[in-house]
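Quick note —
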Amino acid sequence: MSISRRDFLKIASAAAAVSAAPVFKSVSAMSTKPSAPPTFSPNYCELCFWNCGLIAKSVNGKVVKIDGNPLSYRGKGKLCGRGNAGLGLLYDPDRLKHPMLNIGKRGDPKWKKISWDEALSFIANKLNDIKQKYGPEAVALFSHGTGGSFWKHLLKAYGSPNSAAPSFAQCRGPRDVGFYLTFGAAPGSPEHYDFAKSKFIVLIGSHLGENAHNSQVQDLINGLDNGAKLVVLDPRLSNVAAKANWWLPVKPATDLAVLLAWIKIIVDEELYDKEYISKYAIGIKELKEEVKDYTPEWASKISEIPAATIVEIAREMAKHKPNLCISGGRFTVWYGDDSQRSRAIAILTALMGSWGREGGYYLPAAGKVPKYPGLPEYPDTGDSISGDYPFALLQVTNAIRDAAITDKPYPCKGWIIYGSNLIKTMPNKTETINALRKLDLVVAVDVLPTDIVDWADIVLPECTYLERYDDIGTGKFQTFEVTMRVPGMKPLFESKPSWWITKELSKKMGLEAYFPWNDIEEYLKARCEAAGISFDELKQKGALQFNDKANPYIAADNQPEFNTPSEKIELYSKQLKEHGFDPVPKYTAHEEPPADHYRLVFGRSPLHTFSRTINNFMLHDLIPENELWINTKQAAKLGLKKGEYVRLVNQDGIKTDTKIKIKITERLREDCVYMYHGFGVNSANLSRANKRGIGTDELITKYTVDPLMGGTGIRGNFVKIVKEA
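Predicted structure written out below.
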């Protein structure tokens, strides 16, 4: 039975209404008040990084409904299934309600309710002690989310250079580095894919739609509706692969072999955009020499994709150049050579002449909003803890973790963790726990009591995005966009926004000069005024577009700039060679699963943003736990039945504490299993999510670090299925 998106939203809305009713009643006596005219507040979603614009409808001071903001570029007037469930976070009874001090042990906490003044005084005293003993650089910030900008500002004012986000070393970093080494620019976040005008689209390990990416999915569907052809290289028949002209069920860990074969075919048969390459690129002769051995037949034996299919698709790509987009993906930390795999994608993009061309990668619009004027200069800081990775564009989270364990290159003694569940986002959680145990201070700032909260000394409850102002948001898309978040209601319980928390904390740290504004509206008005933007208009609309800064395609009067050493597209990278790395990607075979094991592959549920949403009652009722996908033949071989529960044991002998339900399918290769990431939460205070399904963090004990930029390749873990007695 198939179900349309419209039918699904009706069902989801009905389920949400049933689930939400008692919770709404528990947090407000709405039924005792006379009905008042509704108010509408522009905002943007925080249930994933896409930050789609929305409009919050409030009645009697409570948000009762949210809809997409048609002025938002990211959402284009629509919200995904997760975005529509924002009220499930707002009215979650498990929310953190007041500041708490851990009077027990990290990992086995005993919580004492304290006041905001006590909490901030405790943190200020600890931070000042660390600064006196070790220097300000001994404190690091991990952040994920919009409110993190105020914490970054506070940390710089304190004097530390150590601010990092797992989204680099544990997600998109290798992709950005691979493209930066080739074009001198990353693909953007959200990415600068011109899917709506593409004639040919290639997705490599990307499950668009299941990972939401709202406007990008809309563009993809528009492109397909306009006749674009689609190739999906993935060991799993994802939902988007089911819509492809070619689904290539590649053997895991061999994607680079197929990419190199495509490059060889296009170069050997001179199918590349000769005029484009001649004008904008260097290294075509060296590239041809480097890929001479990567024949389709060689790639076929490795990847198990027929050689004829590899040739066919290479020629189809060339036929549609330059109006094709070869997606660099997003979650790209796979096998440790991920920057080079991403570079192969970038090289293919260049050969097709697709960078800066219609239907390929558009050139993002210019524009910026200046910082708050008149702030004092930040103090001089030493070198950041970034590890020995010469091409890391941002700070590497795992390098900070290593420093906390080893005191090298210098001691790291305090962590402030904003909106990031480090237990689940970083591989080998034993190493994360070892680091946490050695710290002098751990502060967790969050909305929900996620796994990492149990390892904190102090917990600060942040209010949800529907209850707060945040910093001004910007986006460089085909137009330059400026966005604003306006609260739809006052914060529930004793929760506070990060702009307030950091300002109050700065007073206790002697850093109030860095937070001179009286309130957030004064701060936002000053930034808008510096940018020549109407604060009142932005507050009313929530999103403003500036088309005068747009010029998305290469033209005679719009020439591209490449921030590379040669100021050209570098098909052959001399800077890589100078650092001892391959100037052109080379294929290296990766470890195969041991006997009776399967490679563990995982991704995102269509209705969850990893562990961030699985306690949300509006989503949990629809997908309460993850399942283990296994190929039909392998299930029969092991005597597995649909719906039965099993446990998993990885290559290091680690057995899961929780169990997972079997899903038998033809949509997956036989040599791997697949599950959604983010489940298996270990937090007793998350009443719905706790210990539901299996968390991949239990099984990812092995990782391979990308030597170019420090990313943690985690697709090299293997599992064995253990049936319940």
